Amino acid sequence: MRIDILTLFPEMVRAVLGESITGRALKNSLYELNTVNIRDFTADKHRRVDDSPYGGGSGMVMEAQPIYDAYVSVYSPDAKVIYLSPQGRPFCQQKARTLSEEKHLILLCGHYEGVDERVLEEIVDEEISLGDFVLTGGEIAACAVCDAVLRLIPGVLGNNASSFEESFEDNLLEYPQYTRPEEVLGRRVPEVLLSGHHKNIERFRREKSLERTFYKRPDLLEKADLTRTDLAFLETLKKNTK
Ligand code: 4FN
């Protein structure tokens, strides 16, 4: 996969994706990352890329021309162009999955009050939002989307990648994790995890996953892959809640 990120802050994006697992994958050429500084495409002698909005009002708007020229410089016929925007569809794991199958992504990050609508109409295939809050720019959202997409690319996570993935793809929250020592601050590891009884451990973890999802994110249960045993367990939770 090739990813081009059109941004006013290329160092910010490289700093984030250059670390940890996405950084290792970049070194190992498991994907290509190209950050494009929109300012390099300004036609203005003072290197300005923003101007005041037609119709008046406060703040500045990113001009169409530098963004369009930055886009042309990285365009390929395979490219899918994504604008990170609060107006986009909320990002989700299913979207990360489908994007991980693309050959070429071009991500556009906005700043100031936003981007001249006409360049968005011309180049954007899809708008994606990270969530309902105000950001100063689209870069952090772009990095989050890249992180979610890149870890799905074969080889990026390393060996036991597929088993790691399975645990997330059933749309349940994770069960609690514990590591040595057996007692911390007077709190012991649940006995079943020390028992070596694999069937019981599996059942304990599944029930904790279901319980957490039920109490903390009941909305996720609608999308979850549930067995009849899961549904029966959820019924006992509902009864205890009443
Ligand atoms: N944000 C809201 C309403 C109006 C404006 C904003 C806002 C950065 C260029 C967009 C924000 C949130 C999630 C990109 C927010 C995202 C952005 C994102 C983003 C500067 C213009 C702006 C009602 C959502 C609170 C600023 C709501 N995911 N404007 O944040 O780019 O991707």
Helix-residue proportion: 25-40%
Name the poorly predicted regions: none
Largest sheet: 5 strands, parallel
Order of helices and strands: EHHEEEHEHEHEHHEEHH
- Give the strand order of the largest sheet, numbering strands 1, 2, ... along the chain: 2-1-6-5-7
Count the DSSP helices.
9
Short description:
With 242 residues, the chain is an alpha/beta fold. It is 39% helix and 17% strand.
Keywords:
single chain; 242 residues; alpha/beta; 5-stranded parallel β-sheet; two-stranded antiparallel ribbon; 9 helices; 9 strands; elongated; binds ligand 4FN
Q: How do the helices and strands line up, and which of them pair or pack?
A:
Layout (H helix, E strand, L loop, with lengths): L1 E6 L2 H8 L2 H8 L4 E6 L12 E2 L9 E2 L1 H11 L4 E12 L2 H7 L4 E6 L7 H7 L2 E4 L9 H12 L10 H9 L13 E2 L2 E2 L9 H19 L11 H14 L1
Parallel strand pairs: 1-2, 1-6, 5-6, 5-7
Antiparallel strand pairs: 3-4, 8-9
The structure holds ligand 4FN.
The site of ligand 4FN has 16 residues, from strand 5.
